[in-house]
Amino acid sequence: MLNGINARGRRAVLALIAAAAATLLPASSGATSEALQAADAVLVVKSEHRLYLLRGGQPFKSYRVAFGLNPAGHKEREGDYRTPEGSYVLDGRNAASDYFLSLHVSYPNEHDLQHARRNRWKPGGSIMIHGLPNVPRKSLDYYHSADWTDGCIALNNDDMLEVWLLTHTNTPIEIRP
Predict the structure, then answer these.
(1) Range of 150's domain?
(2) pLDDT above 70 coverage of the chain, percent
(3) 32-74: pLDDT as tens digits
(4) CB 176, CB 113: distance < 8 Å
(5) Burial, 94: exposed, middle or buried (Cβ in 10 Å; 0-12, 13-18, 19+)?
(6) Of the candidates 38, 27, 16, which has an alpha carbon nearest to the alpha carbon of residue 170?
(7) Residue 1: inside a domain, yes or no?
(8) What is the secondary structure of 96-156 as a DSSP string?
(9) According to the model, what pLDDT value does residue 35 have?
(10) 2 domain-assigned
(11) d(CA 76, CA 57)
């Protein structure tokens, strides 16, 4: 087992990703497809509970998201259940996480580290964009209607798959209040 998913589960996730990617491919090699163009930035607006994929500064996809259990305000320290606010990058990808896919957000940045040091706090980390838990502990209605993470940004699994396919490592992400 690796992060809660055994080899069979990892194969199933990878097969799902491959199938979804195939649906985005153009019918012929000479055709162009709007769907194949990845986002050049991600914008999250906490007050709207929305994640936007951007191209050329303009949103082309929008998704409902959930945040940490204490969503108001910027993450300051480990265990505050807040989702950070600021400018970061998506600096890692994990197809075998405890949640359906995950993209790592580069929190804490230098500003976050300095703030935590001044206050003698641990800044926390492991902030991700991810889907639903692989082993849910609550009803699906709960995950779709509440802020439920420890500080991450969560989507339903279908939306997470699309975000996974339309972003790359080092894509900038801005998280606004």
Answers:
(1) 7-176
(2) 80
(3) 445 569 999 999 999 999 999 999 999 999 999 999 999 899 9
(4) no
(5) middle
(6) 38
(7) no
(8) TSSBSSEEEE--S-HHHHHHHHHTT-------EEE-SBSS-SS-HHHHHHS--BSS-EE--
(9) 52
(10) no
(11) 28
User: What local confidence, expressed as pLDDT, does residue 137 receive?
Assistant: 94
Q: What are the strands, taking DSSP E only, across 2-130?
A: 41-45, 50-55, 58-64, 86-94, 102-105, 128-130
Mean pLDDT value of segment 133-154: 96
**Where residue 63 sits, what CATH number does that domain have?**
2.40.440.10
| Residue 21: predicted pLDDT | 47
Residue with tokens 């649906």: 23
Number of other CB atoms surrounding residue 125 within 10 Å: 15
Give the residue among 127, 93, 94 at the shortest CA–CA distance from 109: 127
Helices (H), 130-176: 140-145, 157-165
User: Residue 102, Cβ neighbours under 10 Å: how many?
Assistant: 23
Structural domain count of the chain: 1
Contact criterion met (CB below 8 Å) for 156 and 131: yes
In a domain, residue 61? The reply is yes
In a domain, 149, yes or no: yes
d(CA 3, CA 95): 10
> Could you give the 3-state DSSP secondary structure of residue 1?
coil
Q: What are phi and psi of 147, to 5 degrees?
A: -80, 120
Q: Write the Ramachandran bin of 57: left for phi over 0, alpha for psi from -120 to 50, otherwise beta.
A: left
